[in-house]
Specification:
The chain has a single domain, classed as Methylamine Dehydrogenase, Chain H. A hairpin with a 4-residue loop joins strand 16 and strand 17. The protein has five helices and 28 strands. 9% of the residues lie in helices and 39% in strands. The two termini are 34 Å apart. The strands form six sheets. It has an eight-stranded antiparallel sheet with strand order 1-2-28-27-26-25-24-23. It has a four-stranded antiparallel sheet with strand order 3-4-5-6, with no helix packed on it.
Length: 438
């Protein structure tokens, strides 16, 4: 993947569509007022949205374009970043992707807050929002890991990695070192653990309900060793594992209790994303290649190669049944694979503007959320054969997406200099989705 630091921009400012310069209305000084004033100015509730307020709080009356006009302009002008995708391949994909019925409403807008602001450090890495319950979500805000409570509608800093971070205890025989000014490029919050990966190959682990950081180190001394993906998963033996994928072409697996290195696998290209099958036996390995590999999680041996994408891949997700793998690519598509027949994908889902950089199934497998780099999150109904979808339409870079473990909430992090926020959607109560796709 590209070695690149992304500056956050506001699309609305950058395209100069304001009729008058009202930037002071949304400047950083607004956030120095008292909490309730800020909350009133920046938040949008479901009731306010029903009454006509823009869900992001964008005051379209101060612009020379309407929202619909600006959306049309964005769709025409957006330039998707690619590494090797050719115009002929793009045209072919436009014909091959699945025709989906849009307009469904599986998740309803609930709340948008700018009291916590999602940020990203690399334009290709967007896995920086994690919900641990329908009321609790973690996100990166510059150098701070923030916790947002939708019940209290308040944010709290959990870890600040701008300052020096030192493990609370040194474990015998384990190399650990203090870190500072860590640019967090990847994160996971599961099993009462917080795992953070850094732009310079760092790895940090913290227990959710304990002070301090339990473990931190650099995974590689190479110049370009970005920690592209981190995750936490139970191994087949029942022990908890931590897994990382780095730009140095390596996947590393650690024991979550002792933090000792259990396995290390090398590949021929930078690994941008890896995900573990629900039974813990298989690894999906994606990176600077058009191929996606399925490897044995114990030996690292490649079992099969999934071929069809036209550019580099950055996202994957396993259906809870362990039979379906979704892969996201810079060719603007998500491919769905039945790993029992890996010779070709059984469906191609396409975005509106850009690469597919985020994929998440609901824990029971009923829905698949697919995030583009900016502006669009798509929710597909697996029970319809991925033929029905909901489209969440917003403005800004998408820092991450996350369903709550009970599937009741979907959170979307919006990274934008002016309208950066955390958006909350709630599952419609009149739908009873309990069946899985297979």
């Amino acid at each position: 993947m590209e070695q690149f630091n992304s500056d956050e921009v506001s699309y609305l400012d950058a395209k100069s569509i304001r009729a008058t310069k009202n930037d002071s209305d949304f400047s950083d000084s607004d956030f120095e007022d008292d909490f309730e004033t800020k909350k009133m100015e920046t938040d949008t509730s479901a009731q306010e949205a029903r009454n006509g307020k823009d869900i992001q709080g964008i005051q379209w009356e101060g612009f020379k374009y309407t929202r619909d006009e600006f959306r049309e302009t964005r769709l025409k002008q957006y330039e998707n970043f690619v590494n090797i995708l050719t115009p002929s391949s793009r045209e072919k994909l436009d014909k091959e992707h699945r025709q989906v019925e849009k307009g469904k409403n599986f998740y309803e807008f609930q709340f948008n807050t700018r009291l916590v602001t999602s940020t990203i450090v690399h334009f290709q890495l967007r896995n920086l929002v994690w919900a641990t319950s329908k009321h609790d979500v973690y996100l990166m805000q510059n150098y701070s890991l923030m916790h947002w409570s939708s019940l209290l509608q308040r944010g709290k800093e959990v870890v600040n990695v701008a300052r020096s971070v030192t493990p609370i205890q040194k474990l015998p025989g384990l190399f650990s070192e203090p870190l500072s000014r860590v640019q967090v490029s990847s994160m996971a919050v599961k099993e009462n653990l917080i795992l953070l990966g850094g732009f310079n190959g760092e790895l940090l682990c913290k227990c959710v309900n304990q002070p301090g950081v339990a473990f931190c180190t650099r995974l590689s001394t190479e110049d370009n060793a970005i920690t592209n993906t981190v995750d936490i998963y139970p191994s087949p033996s029942g022990s908890l594992r931590l897994i990382t994928a780095n730009n140095d072409c390596h996947i590393r697996v650690f024991d979550a209790q002792s933090f000792t290195l259990v396995s290390e696998f090398a590949f021929d290209w930078s690994v941008n994303n890896t995900s573990v099958s629900p039974d813990g036996n298989l690894l999906a390995v994606l990176g600077d290649s058009t191929e996606c590999l399925i490897s044995d999680s114990h030996s690292g041996k490649v079992i099969s190669s999934l071929k069809g994408h036209k550019d580099y891949s950055f996202a994957s997700a396993w259906h809870p049944n362990g039979l379906i793998l979704a892969t996201g690519n810079q060719d603007t598509t998500c491919r769905l694979w039945d790993i029992r027949n890996p010779s070709e994908s059984f469906a191609i889902l396409k975005g509106n503007m850009g690469a597919i950089r985020g994929l998440k199934f609901t824990p029971e497998g009923r829905f698949l959320a697919m995030a583009e780099p900016a502006d669009f999150v798509h929710i597909f109904d697996t029970q319809s054969g991925f033929l029905q979808s909901q489209e969440i339409d917003l403005f800004g870079e998408i820092a991450g997406i996350s369903f709550s473990p009970d599937t009741e909430a979907l959170y979307v992090g919006v990274a934008d200099r002016t309208y950066g926020s955390l958006m909350e959607y709630k599952r419609r109560k009149d739908n009873h989705y309990m069946d899985s796709f297979f």
